[in-house]
Amino acid sequence: MHAEQMAEEFPVVDVDSDALEAARSLAAHRLPGLVVTDKDGRPFSILPASQVVRFLVPRYVQDDPSLAGVLDESMADRVADKLSGRTVRDLLPGEPPELAAVDHDDTIVEVAATMARLRCPLAAVLRDGTLIGVITASRLLELALTPH
C-alpha cells in the first residue's frame, strides 16, 4: 500500500492563520495536529496539538511541574486570552520542526519510519511538492494492524 492510498483529507492552516481558530479546530475535531502551509500554500511544518498545549502552559510550570498544583483552574479561562491576536507562526517553536512529509508512492514502512524519526503524529503526503492528503499515526496503525 502506498501513501496516496492511505492519505485522508485533513484541515490545513496557513502560518499566518489565527492561532485561536487553529486551536479550536484541533479541539473540535480531536486532531493530533495540523499541517501548516506557507504563504504560497506549500506545506511548511506540522503543528502538533501538544505544541499548542505547551504554548499555553507558563514556562515556569514547564520547568517545575510541581508548581502546577498551586495554580488555580482559571488557566482554562485564559486560553482564549493567550491565543487571541496570535498567529499559527507564534505557536511554532523558534526553529519550526522539519516537515513530516512523504512522497505519494512511499510504502507504509517508509511512512512509519518518517513519523518515528520525527516523532510526529502525522505526515503530509506530497505529489510533486503539492499536498494531496495527510496520514495520521492512528490511521497508519489501523492499516498496519488490519490483516491483509
Protein architecture, described:
This protein has helices at residues 3-6, 19-29, 49-56, 59-63, 75-83, 88-91, 108-118, 137-145; strands at 12-14, 33-37, 43-48, 101-103, 122-127, 130-136. The protein has 148 residues and is of the alpha/beta class. The strands form two sheets. It has a three-stranded mixed β-sheet with strand order 1-2-3. It has a three-stranded mixed β-sheet with strand order 4-5-6. Strand 5 (122-127) and strand 6 (130-136) form a beta hairpin. The longest helix has 11 residues, at 19-29.
- The low-confidence runs, each spanning 5 or more residues with pLDDT under 50, are none
Please outline the major beta sheet. Answer: 3 strands, mixed
Helix content: 40-55%
Mean pLDDT: 86
Radius of gyration: 17 Å
The separation of the N and C termini measures: 11 Å
Q: So what's the overall shape?
A: globular
How many strands in all? 6
N to C succession of SSEs: HEHEEHHHHEHEEH
* Count of alpha/pi helices: 8
> Numbering strands along the chain, what is their spatial order in the largest sheet?
1-2-3
Short description:
The chain is of the alpha/beta class and about 150 residues long.
Give the helix/strand layout.
Blueprint: H1 3-6, E1 12-14, H2 19-29, E2 33-37, E3 43-48, H3 49-56, H4 59-63, H5 75-83, H6 88-91, E4 101-103, H7 108-118, E5 122-127, E6 130-136, H8 137-145
Parallel strand pairs: 1-2, 4-5
Antiparallel strand pairs: 2-3, 5-6
